[in-house]
Structure formats: C-alpha cells, structure tokens
Amino acid sequence: MSLPTADHRTTTDPRSATAPRPATAPRPATAPRPATAPRTTADPRPATDRRPAGDRPITLERIESYLPERSVRIEELGERLGLHRAQLGVFRKFYGLDRLRYDPGLPLLDLLRPAARGALAALPEGGRVDYLAYAHVTQAVAPAHVDVAREIGDALGLADAEAFGLSHQACVSSLGAIEVLGELLRAEGGEGAYALMVTGEQAYSPVVQHVPNTSIMADAAASCLITLDGEGDVVRSFATRTLGEYAQWLELTPEQNTEFGERYGGRIAEVIHQAVEEAGLTLDDVELVIPHNVNKLAWRQTIKELGVAPEKVFLDNVPRYSHTFASDVFVNYTTLRDEGRLVDGAPYLLVSVGLGATFGAMVITHRAGGGTR
Amino acid sequence: MSSAGIDKVRDWILGRHPERTELASDVDLIESRLVDSLAFVELVYTIEDAAGVEIDFDNIDIEDFQTLATIEKAFFA
C-alpha cells in the first residue's frame, strides 16, 4: 500500500493556506514551544515534494529513541538462546552482530516513556495529540488485560487521545503506523491536531529474542510526533508489500525458508524502487538508506541487488544495538541526526522488513529547521 | 580434480536449488544468493562436517566462503 499521492508534481503549496493553530486547545504537560506561524515564504522543497491541496503531507515533527543502558555481548546470551559456537561465530563474523541492549528488569512502560516524552516535547503551544498508536512486532507484549497503548497514553498525560495498538506488519509496523496516523489526521484531524507513534518492546523470551539464522533481537524504543503540513521531515512516499504465504513466521518449512531467502533481496528492492519513484526521485537522489538492523549479510546481498555503493546504507548500529524490533530505523535516524550527519533538504530512505512477511520503504525529506532538530 | 569434501559442499548447495544441475567453482555463492543469509549457518555446518574440523572464526573471512574455489582453498586444501 502506498500513500494516495499519485501526482506529486503539482506546484501547489498546500501549506500556504494553513491557518494559525488555536491557542486555547488543551495541551498536555510538555515543554512549551511557540506556535508556528503559517509559512509565507517560498517553499524550499522541490516541486516533486509538493502535493495537491487536500492531500496534505505527513510531517515528522520530532523523532526520538531510547536504549536501555544495560549492554551485553551476544556470547553472553548464548546459553539463554541455545546458540552454539558456530551459530555465534556466524552472527559475529558474518552478520556483524556484537553487542546489544538487554534489560529484562526494565518495565515495558519505562522503556517506552523516555522516547515518547522526548517526541511529545515538540508539541507546540495550542497543539493537541488526537491519536496515539503503539506499534509492536510481537503480538503479546503484555498480559491480555493490559492495553499498552492506553497505558502509555495515560502515562504521558494523553488521556483524551484515542490510543490503539498496531502490529501485523512486524518490524514494518512503526512505519505503517505513521501512515495510519497520517490518514487519521487527514480524515478527522482539525487545526492543531497531532498524533504520536510509539514503538518499542523487549526480547522477553528466547523465542522472541532469537530469530534462527537471522538475528538476535534487542531492547529499544522510539517515538515520532506527527502532524500534517508541519515543519518537520516530510514523508514523501511509503511503499509496502506483504507476502502472506510466509505468515507462519518461525514455523516455515525449510523449503519456504529457502524460497524466502531467495526472494528477500528482490522484494526489498521492489518496495525501495516503488517508494523512490512515488517520491519523484531516483535511488541516486537518496542521500542515505536508513535500514533495519537485521544483519549485515542480508544487507550485503540487498546492496548487491540494488546496485548501490555499500556506504549508501547505514549499518554502523548493527554491531552496537543489533535488531531492535520496529525501532531500528528511528534509532538509526537519531544516531545520524545526533552525529550531525543528516543533511537539510536531503531525501532519506527508511527501510524495514518484518516476519510474516512485510517489506516497507518510506522516503522522507529531512528539514533541519523542523521539529526533529 | 576437486576433493570429496568440496563435492559434499557442492551437493548441499545443489540440493537446495533443484533447478540447477551444476555449479562452477567460480560462481559467487553469496551475491548470487545460492547461499543466502538464512542458510549461512547450515553452510558452516556442512563445511565442518565435510572437513571434519571446527571452523576457527577468528581466522577466516567472508571472502573464504565466496565461491566453491575459495571454500576449497580455505578448508580442504
């Protein structure tokens, strides 16, 4: 599914008609920030980044991530995960895994809250969060009677926000949630309406933590404050493809695993090319691919499939954090941003793959002056 | 003439790809996805079984697994 933005080539700037947000709207207890005035200056975005009036672009006002402090080497998890010498050797030597964050004593809400609060701090005076989506990979992240989305909403002082969980796209769920929240804002959001995407979970069981022959899952969380026509990074396209024949996750037959492995790189390449094309770009225009951290070998093969230079894909965090469920692309984004490596006005490609199997790619344009700074 | 050990590795790869009947020694196994990331551990086990030794991960590199020729040189020479 892609965003309904087939024609990106209009020169209409939908934001030129944006009215000031009302200053009287309820707002949660977050750091104040002056309300933004409607833009009246020339739009710095290229014409291909603009959308027709009525199809307002989703903007990512602030992205934050959080990693527990407790860091372990993958060998320390060998016994827990039943990994033998050769498996650990392959993970370290060829998949590029080294350390990861793993803190089983940390309550889930304590994992989720810091990044969510950080993102929420970008909510301007007069803004209000209408929707909160908790995107997760593992279906059961808490006992059945616990509504994590509601709990995190309440913990953030967002009692009035409509809170819901979203998964079934596995590690692509966080990107999918951005699209869903954007569509809700388009359909129902009034002036000053925002939405909060929260993702993050813990590798609470060996079954959850070890994806055989693929990766070792790690703890992390991320959050993204979203609105329409804001000043943050502009979402230019989102492409996904779900191959339902692999819905059995870890219970695929060996033949299905072989087939999936063979199709993996090609399917990623398809959604990447689709997302880039729908953004009105070519892969050469993309400044950097910000990927999920599944492992370096899978990306090596995908890089070959794409025909891009290896340095075009940011893999520095694979040995640092391993695969953090649906948080990877945002953890990697904040690493790049905090290191000053995101270029104002440049397009970036967020890419993730989820068991099940869903392939997702989102093109954004970074705006250093926006809320994500 | 190839060794019996590398023939076992070749047979294992061809067994995973019934559409192929032969596999040249210089074919890039990784970039061609004849061995994808999901199968890499199995490849290691196959080589260890055929060579009768445990692979020392501190002294190998991914290039040693690139083709049947490099595998033969690294583990069966």
Automatic annotation (TrEMBL), chain B:
It comes from the Bacteria. Residues 1-77 form the Carrier domain. It comes from Streptomyces bikiniensis. InterPro entries: ACP-like_sf, PP-bd_ACP. This is Phosphopantetheine-binding protein.
